[in-house]
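Q: Give me a backbone?
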Amino acid sequence: LVAGAASLDPSMLGRLGGWAMLFFLVTTLIASSIGVVLAFVIRPGDGAGDVATSMLDSASGEILESKEVLDSFLDLLRNIFPSNLVSAAFQSYTTTYKHVQIKKNITGELGEYNETIMIEKVPYGKEVEGMNILGLVVFAIVFGIALRKLGSEGEILIKFFNSFNEATMVLVSWIMWYAPLGIMFLVAAKIVEMHDVVALFTSLGKYICCCLVGHAIHGLLVLPLIYFIFTRRNPYTFLWGIFTALATAFGTSSSSATLPLMMKCVEEKNGVSKHISRFILPIGATVNMDGAALFQCVAAVFIAQLNNMTLDFVKVITILVTATASSVGAAGIPAGGVLTLAIILEAVGLPTRDISLILAVDWLVDRTCTILNVEGDAYGAGLLQAYTDKMGEKNEDQELTDIKMESGDPTKAAGGE
């Protein structure tokens, strides 16, 4: 990312970043809409009540602590500026809550006794395990721009980062030799951990189906269609070029872990230049979470149907907007989307206790989420490459036109003599 930012002109950096963010925002909104529509059509919450009751009773200790919507967005802003770059590589800032108790002495007819009154929860911040990739991305971009401003003095450090990145790519190519075997065991381990696979898939099958169908529609139809409209190239050829990265995303269930391989695939097989892929893909791994947004919308409607709660138009719009916004802050790690699901449930007044159900099958749904997330990043890089190619052709045509006009103007030629 440092090398990518350093190789771009500052004006081009802002333009590329703006188009990338617009693409990520629009595709995430589309994904959220697909999730809500499918959830209302398939109705995954119908028929899952029996297993839900038994599972919630047994999983009472696994309930995630819900977080206020405002605190979640403030945490996002705080993480943009990490206090320590080293700790940002393995820790991030989050808001947690503690309950303050006040004891009052009340004198009654039978004498004096104490009454404990619970007041509102008090927020306080702490560092938790998990890479603060957002802070690292922002620092790397700013540092890359600073190196470019230095000119010749910054070239040594830019070469260092370029060499470092190339060495990482070589390591990735070695690792990929045993990736198929590793992916097989990663998935097998999750299946073995489950107690009653048949009962779980029977009761939550409609929910899983809803998520998988939504991911398939968005990944195989919507994203390729957007790519084709703007580039007039075959989107499925592009998709085949990143197949190895998508398989790794399925195995690791992590956008961040798939990042080095995705860079290698789009550069070597799809012709995306290094300065674009190394600038856009790390940003996409942080802010572009199409799969997470779609799954969160399905999960929210699923929990509403489970509790026989009707969602009016305002609540549906709230789910769409909150899912799109909260997916930006979702960590690019396994089960990162589940952690932000509580924000959406709180926003529309749904019980966060039912998240335990989502966790039961998240090992499968999260893998297809990750595939969709990294696919969206790759198509974004491909679109920006096509955009820069067109801009480059326009500039070349303009230069040729200027040269022809100058050579064809006799007064300029005479003046030149």
